[in-house]
Amino acid sequence: MPVPRETLERAIADGLVLDALPDSFNALGRRYSGKVRENFTREGERLIIVTDRISAFDCVLGTIPFKGQVLNQLAGYWFEVTGELFPNHLIDQPSALTDAQATRAVECEPVKVEMVVRGYLTGSSSTSIWRAYERGDRRFCGHTLADGMVRHQKLPHNLVTPTTKAKKGEHDENASKAELVAMGVVDAELFDQIEQQCLRLFAFGQELAAERGLILVDAKYELGRRPDGQIVLIDEIHTPDSSRYWYADTYAAAMAASEDPRALDKEYVRRWLVSQGFDGDGQPPALPPEVRIEAAQRYIETYERMTGRSFEPDLEPPVERLTNKLLS
Predict the structure, then answer these.
(1) Residue 167: which CATH number?
(2) Do 215 and 221 form a contact (C-beta atoms < 8 A)?
(3) What is the largest CA-CA distance in the chain?
(4) Given phi > 0 = left and psi -120 to 50 = alpha, else beta, which region is 233?
(5) Does residue 169 carry a pLDDT above 80?
(6) Please, are residues 161 and 129 in contact by the beta-carbon 8 Å criterion?
(7) DSSP secondary structure letter of residue 288
């Protein structure tokens, strides 16, 4: 059942969104703050607290009510259903920690490449396949693209289009397998292994999404090496932050009308930013309440469609709640 709009409005008004965590949380371990996640490492384990922050074009823009709860639980669902297909870093599901925004994972050494799998010619960021195609590029991350394609068109087959994994505050860059190998980021054998694993994982995700009436358009996979040497998925998987979802039943009509497909993901926020003249350079505009609420509704619907579960937000103030559950 959708979360009432009034609940989302009240969450914003009453400060029921998690932006920052106080220094007291440093007791959980060595701290690293990402754009969205707060990470605490101790004794070979990582505690991840997913905030309500939202980022686009590598900029943190503000907060979306209950986004952290949605992302953490949806990633937990996907890690669970794909664990045999591609192992992951998970130790405990969110429920095991009794908080919807926290996950316990194995501490891994990140693989310095992000594996992006694309099924469609789309996107709005400077690194998107559509932006490159629109500029006239017909080679993208080592793949040749045909002339005459249109925006949002399905690609002949799914493509792995890697990016470098930039440091915080810097931009990821598209790269081909040959370029990554030449830079020493990854060796050819490892790339081939994870490329095939990511393609299988994405195809499984597309099949599951189709059963739920959605199109899984693309996905970004982050990888790490566990202490035993195994390459595993880390961070998140198939959430509205790292993947695009479109409604399957309206896609054909949107294409026929040369319109953007109806979507359930962060692309809504990206498109709003572009409509305000922001595409990653300069100071981003503040997200108005109506954009934050609409984004929250899309995130929640994605969770409910994919998992078949109702999303029940925890309405306790997040810092107080997390303090009681994780620091007591």
Answers:
(1) 3.30.470.20
(2) no
(3) 61
(4) beta
(5) no
(6) yes
(7) P
Residue reference for tokens 């686009």: 56
Task: Quick: pLDDT tens for 216-244.
Answer: 999 999 999 999 999 999 999 999 999 99
* Token pair 């937990």: residue: 76
> 240 near 298, Cβ under 8 Å?
yes
Query: Are 38 and 45 a contacting pair, CB within 8 Å?
Result: no
SS3 138: coil
- Do the Cβ atoms of 118 and 218 come closer than 8 Å? yes
Percent of the chain with pLDDT over 70: 96
> Would you state the structure tokens that stand for residue 145, as one six-digit string?
């693209």
70 phi, psi to nearest 5 deg: -65, -50
Q: Which of 316, 318, 322 is nearest to 17 (CA)?
A: 318
- C-alpha distances (whole Å) from 189 to each of 15, 142, 178, 184, 229 are 49, 17, 12, 12, 15
* SS3 per-residue string spanning 31-99: EEECCCEEEEEECCEEEEEECCEEEECCEEEEECCCHHHHHHHHHHHHHHHHCCCCCECEEECHHHHCC
What's the whole-number mean pLDDT along residues 34-52? Answer: 96
Of 40, 71, 73, nearest to 54 by C-alpha is: 71
The pair of three-digit structure tokens given for residue 210, joined into one six-digit string: 């189709």
- Domain coverage including residue 187: 5-327
pLDDT value of residue 38? 97
Domain count, the chain: 1
Read off the pLDDT of residues 285-312 as tens digits, 9 standing for 90 and up.
Answer: 999 999 999 999 999 999 999 999 999 9
Residue 93 has pLDDT above 80, yes or no: no
Task: Pick the closest to residue 153 from 231, 254, 249 (CA basis).
Answer: 254
Within 8 A by CB and 6+ apart from 137, the residues are: 145
> Token pair of 308, please?
């078949």
Query: Measured between alpha carbons, how far is 86 from 117 in angstroms, rounded to an integer?
Result: 15
List, in sequence order, every residue forming a beta bridge with 174; answer none if it has no partner.
163
Q: Residue 245: how many CB atoms within 10 A of its CB?
A: 29
pLDDT of 132 reads 96
Q: What does DSSP say about strands 154-160 and 109-120: parallel, antiparallel, or unpaired?
A: antiparallel
Give CA–CA dist 41/327, Å, rounded.
Answer: 15
